[in-house]
Write a structure and sequence with these properties.
Layout lengths: L3 E4 L2 E3 L5 E7 L8 E7 L6 E6 L5 E3 L7 E6 L4 E6 L8 E9 L2 E4 L3 E5 L2
Parallel strand pairs: 2-11
Antiparallel strand pairs: 1-3, 3-8, 4-5, 4-9, 5-6, 7-8, 9-10, 9-11
Length: 115
Amino acid sequence: QVPLVESGGGLVQPGGSLKLSCSASERLFSRTYTAWYRQAQGKQRELVADIHTYGHTTYADFAKGRFTISRDSAKNTLHLQMNNLKPEDTSVYFCFVRSSGTEYWGQGTQVTVSS
């Protein structure tokens, strides 16, 4: 199992920004399905945004216009830029990769939006 390591979470005030990063020790982010999920306490895990094999991106409605997913295949990293954060964005954010039929999850990074 190739570990995915997320970073960039933390405490931010409403309206603030954070950039999450996910890194892997192998080339997992080239022509694979990659995504960010989140899970708030007591709720089901939900898709935030994804990048499909050939680069097409999709966003959950709550993320449209505020979040941007990107990946750097050469650096084996996946990012999620989050702007205009709201208290309801408070969650643990997870990196996900599906490559050659194998699924990988990161350990999650906590994002807390509070004044």
